[in-house]
Amino acid sequence: MVNEFTFSVKGNLVDIPNETIYAATIEIENGIIKTISKLENETVKGFILPGFIDSHVHIESSMLVPVEFARLAVVHGTVATISDPHEIANVCGLKGVEFMINNGRQAPFKFNFGAPSCVPATIHETAGAKLNANDVENLLERNDIRYLSEMMNFPGVLFKDEEVIKKIASAHKLNKPVDGHAPGLRGEQAKQYIEAGISTDHECFTAEEALDKLHYGMKILIREGSAAKNFEVLADLLHENANNIMFCSDDKHPDSLVEGHINTLCARAVAKGIDVYKVLRAACINPVLHYKLDVGMLRPGDPADFIIAEDLVKFNILQTYINGKLVAENGVTRILSVAAESINHFDCALKVVADFAVPAKHNADDEIFVIEALDGQLITNKLAVPASRLTKASGFLYSNIDEDILKIVVINRYKNAPVSIGWIKNFGFKEGAIASTVAHDSHNIIAVGVDDESIATAVNLVIKEKGGVSCVSKNATTVLGLLVAGLMSDKDGYLVAKKYTEIDKMAASLGTKLSSPFMTLSFMALLVIPHLKLSDKGLFDGDNFVLITH
Predict the structure, then answer these.
(1) What's the pTM value of the predicted model, to 2 decimals?
(2) All residues at 6 or more sequence positions from 117 whose CB lies less than 8 Å from its CB, including other chains
(3) What three-state secondary structure class fits 81?
(4) 104 contacts: CB under 8 Å, gap ≥ 6
(5) C-alpha–C-alpha distance, residues 339 and 336, integer Å
(6) What number is the average pLDDT over the span 100-112?
(7) Which CA distances in Å does 507 have to 60, 193, 475, 503?
(8) CA geometry: angle at 421 spanning 392 and 351, to 5°?
(9) pLDDT per residue over 461-473, tens digit each?
(10) Helix (H) or strand (E) holding 383
């Protein structure tokens, strides 16, 4: 067994800055790389690399508490994350941020949390908490808060909203980076947003947009999560911009985290013919430099954070070390589960079928707005269809299964309030409903289904659990409870992933063609992403940033 205080490791060392590979012995003492010695005329196996870093992730979206996220991630060579606790902050406020930090400390893993900048994300939804500029500055003054999390209120930046500008100024004063979030912003507006001191963006969905932002000095994070998948359109940027690119997942459901993490992006990039050193610079080096992380880059004197990969093609990870501790080996995590405290904010009564009724007040030719969900994208389209395309019976409007226009609802989880109802296309269900309290950014209850009875059943399943994801078919119901803030389970990560795989498979059986229906659903209340979304207060026009009142 490896002595965790003083030991050595042999392998083919990948020197990313100097773009060389050579056989070497690394000596580790008390968690620090003491020496790196080149081996002459000796053949060794495995490639020693700095550990991978997810440069922007909401741990909560994995449905796992930080310790459980770490247990799964280290198997794939991830040693650190840039973690935005924005989701739990919108539910539980500062107590939620403290929960993430304290739970993360119980794992030998390098979580780097930010100060959430947008709690609530907008004034057009009901969140469970509010963090003002003073709250954010107090967080930023802490050594364990590394940056200002994604500034989603880009209109507030452009129009110089006082609270927004104060938050950015606090980060600059404390010499901490500011993360961005500006989907579709181009030209002069992008320039203005970047000149406000915002340094990254993970929301680019075209190469042209990313190049525009790179031109103005911003760093681009190539995102490939469970819902938003931008790798294919952005990966070729690495050829000419490797120093200003990083990889991230943003939102990663537990089943896909079991399958892989940043290592899979490295494999895909190399398969596309991108130079391996440029790929590894994005995966291992750039986040450390940009966020000034206490994460080793495989140099003498650095923390012994490194991985051993079987090769530089598939990036199958043989071993992962963090601070000199072996935390994963041959696909098996060595991080132990720990008991997680319960934290939540949930006060919502059970619903009845009548709560979801929509009176047929429209004429047949009146236009009704419909959200068009897009597989693999957070952005949605705004459709206007005649009311006649919805099913009308007994004076009420219902889903039109044949034309795939289904009812979508959002319900305030923090207090009893009327149900907000809209219509959505591309879920494709032929029966049943799904519901979730993972609903960015305020995490109210969101559901979509073919009939009011199924929707009510799915919603009540998660209300009874005080948070979770549920699925209802003609013959069965199932729910995965998420007791921690209605976002995360306190159970073993691998068991949660198995349960989620089962419920996701059941959702697919309802007829959807979406690759990840629950993840797609979770973003249909995300008002800061154009073009049309639904909050607990009503339908929202993301282009004009207003509620639609008719």
Answers:
(1) 0.94
(2) 86, 136, 148, 149, 150, 151, 152, 153, 164, 167, 178, 179
(3) strand
(4) 59, 66, 67, 70, 83, 111, 113
(5) 10
(6) 97
(7) 21, 39, 13, 6
(8) 100
(9) 999 999 999 999 9
(10) strand 381-386
Residue 249 contacts residue 400 (beta carbons within 8 Å) = no
E strand or H helix at 9 = strand 6-15
Q: What is the CA radius of gyration of the chain?
A: 24
φ, ψ of residue 197 to 5 degrees: the values are: 100, 25
- For residue 420, the enclosing domain spans 353-547
How are strands ordered across the β-sheet holding 367-372? 381-386, 367-372, 420-425, 405-411, 445-449, 433-436, 468-472, 477-481
In this prediction, residue 206 carries a pLDDT of: 95
Tell whether 262 and 365 lie within a shared domain: no
- Name residue 115's beta-bridge partners: 148
Q: Looking at residue 218, what is its pLDDT?
A: 98
pLDDT at 303 over 60: yes
For 344, phi and psi rounded to 5 degrees? -160, 165
**What percent of the chain is predicted at pLDDT more than 70?**
99
**What is the C-alpha separation between 403 and 173, in angstroms, rounded?**
54
SS3 192: helix
Query: Is the domain of 363 the same as that of 245?
Result: no
Backbone angles phi, psi at 135, to 5 degrees: -60, -45
> In this structure, what CATH number is given to the domain that contains residue 170?
3.20.20.140
pLDDT band of residue 2 (cuts 50, 70, 90) is very low
Q: Which residue has the tokens 């020197």?
A: 15
DSSP class of residue 337?
P
φ/ψ of 265, rounded to 5, equals -70, -40
- Residue type for 32, please? I
Boundary-marking domain end, from 225, 259, 294: 294
Same domain? For 290 and 396 the reply is no
Q: How far apart are CA 329 and CA 308, in angstroms?
A: 9
pLDDT at 3 exceeding the cut of 70: no
Q: Are residues 98 and 218 in the same domain?
A: yes
Mean pLDDT of 496-501: 97
Same domain membership, residue 376 and residue 276: no
Mean pLDDT of 517-535: 93
Distance separating alpha carbons of residues 250 and 92, to the nearest angstrom: 20
Q: Which of 252, 278, 294 is the last residue of a domain?
A: 294
Tens of pLDDT along 421-457?
999 999 999 999 999 999 999 999 999 999 999 999 9
* Tokens linked to 439: 């609903």
Same domain assignment for residues 224 and 83: yes
Same domain membership, residue 357 and residue 290: no
Q: Any idea how long the chain is? A: 550
Q: How many domains does the chain have?
A: 2
Tokens standing for residue 227: 């819902």
**pLDDT higher than 80, residue 27:** yes
In tens, the pLDDT along 47-82 reads 999 999 999 999 999 999 999 999 999 999 999 999
Residues 147, 57: Cα–Cα separation, whole Å? 13
- Residue 251 pLDDT more than 80? yes
Extract the tokens encoding 411.
């319900």
Q: Helix (H, G, I), strand (E, B), or coil: what is residue 387?
A: helix
